[in-house]
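Entry for the shared binder. Reason: the reviewer on the internal report wants the predicted structure included alongside the sequence.
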Amino acid sequence: MDIVIVESPAKAKTINKYLGKTYKVLASFGHIRDLPAKDGSVLPDDDFAMKWSIDKTAEKRVAEIAQAVKNGDKLILATDPDREGEAISWHILDVLRHKKLLKDKPIERVVFNAVTKTAVLNAMAHPRAIDANLVDAYLARRALDYLVGFTLSPVLWRKLPGARSAGRVQSVALRLICDRELEIERFIREDYWLIEALLKTVRAESFPARLMSFNGQKTGRLDIKTAAEAEHMRAVLDGARFAVTDLQAKPVKRHPAPPFTTSSLQQAASSRLSFSAARTMQIAQKLYEGVDMGGETAGLITYMRTDGVQMAPEAVAAARNAVKDIFGQNYLPSSPRHYAAKAKNAQEAHEAIRPTDFQRRPEQMAAFLAKDQLELYRLIWQRALASQMCPADIERTQVDIEARNGETQALLRATGQVTLFEGFLAVYKDNQEEKKDSDSADSAEAELRLPRIEAGEAVDKEKITVSEHTTEPPPRYSEASLIKKMEELGIGRPSTYAATLTTLRDRDYILIDKRRLTPEPRGRIVTAFLENFFNRYVEYDFTADLEEKLDLISDGKLEWKNVLRDFWQNFSAAVAQTQDLRVAQVLDVLNDVLAPLIFPPRAEGGDPRLCPLCGNGRLSLKLGRYGAFIGCSNYPECTYTKQLSGQQSAENMAEPAEIAAAGPNILGQDPATGEDVMLKSGRFGPYVERGTDKQARRAGLPKGWTEKEMNLQKALALLSLPREIGPNPENGKMISAALGRYGPYILCDGQYANLDSVEEIFTVGVNRAVTLLAEKQQKGKSRSGTAAALKTLGDHPEGGVIAVYSGRYGPYVKWGKINATLPREQDPTEITLAEALELIAAKAGKSRGKTAAKGKNGGKKTGKEG
């Protein structure tokens, strides 16, 4: 039997159906080993030797793979067709060689861009060896990321206590977000006025025109500065005569955009579907790995990690056939369209993201896909199909109108466009937003149809409108716009963007609110530190140049260890230069650089750094174990502190544990609500509280947390629970982490799993959570022989646990020997303990009724009637 190794169980299940009984397909669940998160995993002094370790959660899978290979005839490595996929295959092969299980067994590497039967069987017929260049590129990238993280992060911890780690790409992405915030803070608003006339032709058809010049002076967007000036112009135009002086109609062709790359898909899904980058990739992964379509399982899209914009020749032919079938010959160009990638090394020359079968129209897939899956599939299908269609024919019209009032002359202009032939826009006929293709230069131009106008024609005024406006600062980055900017600068790679953003959020460096990215104070401080003491390593050009070298390694044009040597020589020297830096020196620099953030101007005026409590101390950035805050130079005589959120603390508030061992119970104020956050002691022990009366929110201190080490940051973390980790890739349901009666745990769709420590509540990621849930479910099955509880509701007043189970005839609640079926309309994950108690009581009442009836009338007669 031949052993086939892929990454995911879903992919394994689909491929197993294609290959038949002579193959055994196993999943590695991603990487089976990694560099341990400790010093010494990469050794620059030992020619960059790398020490790998197998994760505990992967040991069982490695054992299963090893046993299968030992008994198998051939090993076929069928992981994803990119650098990470090549690395996973290399790791598996390396582990098996160390276990001496391969001997003379044939080893093949196969790749396929789509999980379809045709693609898989074709790949099996054309195996190759592992691509050493791709593996070298992976090793170089992994070593670089490790060396930066585990060399720079300790410097951060020593010089900026409370800061988290610093990553090679994450730090540059964070700088982009912080730089944009600085632009917004420095922006000075300006007022301006615009003047528009609503005019009417002799045929009584109205159209708008904007004032372009007045007495030979340009009146552009920012040229009319005062209301008086605008009102004077309006009065002149009110009494003017209007006539058309010039009319130009130009035909324009609007061409379709290429099929999606990883980056453009993430951007489109964010702007049109409001999906995060991580959510987009999760859904795309499912569409790629395979969907059950009523007995047939197949991947619906090609591989979703790519910079390539071209489609395979057979896919182009299929798209053209679909265009002709759906829209007709008029929508099909005479020859296929070809696109070229802008990237210098387009993710190992992969195809663009496209449907595996263009005949699977979105409306036909609706029965087999969840709502989010269908929306993303439709986006991909439309974009790929449109890429092989005719351009849209548009006529753009510009009309110049002269206005005269005595000696005063003004020029107004009306513009509009009319679509003469829809071309590729016909694909988006059901969605007007889609028709504004984000990759087209004229996406922001609304389609305005002007009435029939002739040169020299007099037009009448209906009204003159003056509108006041204010310039706006540049918007904060959204996920989509940040990804676009990073791609333009050549920072990172599209396949890593989602993970980069997740890391920044999890480290509390940024806040994602209403799809906008705002740097947290901690992120601003870290960026300021890196810019002032490690500027070269957060420069955009330097990071982009390093990415280019990594691409050249994968292309076989650079030797990976030479790249590491060049980098490490300069980087280690830069780190050494900071060893003698005193924390006071760092704080002096940060006080100056971050002055607008940490010392904002006061409403009443005066020196923003003068302590408002003692009146003569100087405010300065101070660093504690759990982060930075503002404190007075006269400490300990003056105990004034302020949180970096800008919320003022109460006088004599409790200092962080690093400043004072004890103090009053007010820890600070919640920056989101302004409410006091207090540390209190109750009958069940210490707890934190935010707010007052019935609206107060409370959380007890978990085991191991002491009152002495409590501060505002830790209190807010407790009060924010439960924490949403992210959607479960298996079912799309949200996974959350919380603190319960029996300790920290995670929950998804009614299923629980314990965490090892309280700190893990705030750090556990989706992959770790999914593994814990799967292990817990497996343990439940092995103990009872039946499925584990969907949800544990709590204890019955008479003792014993009440839980929700899934049974043969539907979900039910169970207490002891009583099973009560849930009503059909009841969601088993939403039922409360009170509702369950009612169902159990009703079930118990019926059971007693039946028993009593049987005892009275249903028993057998044992003697004669007396």
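Summary line for the report: DSSP finds 23 helices and 34 strands in the chain.
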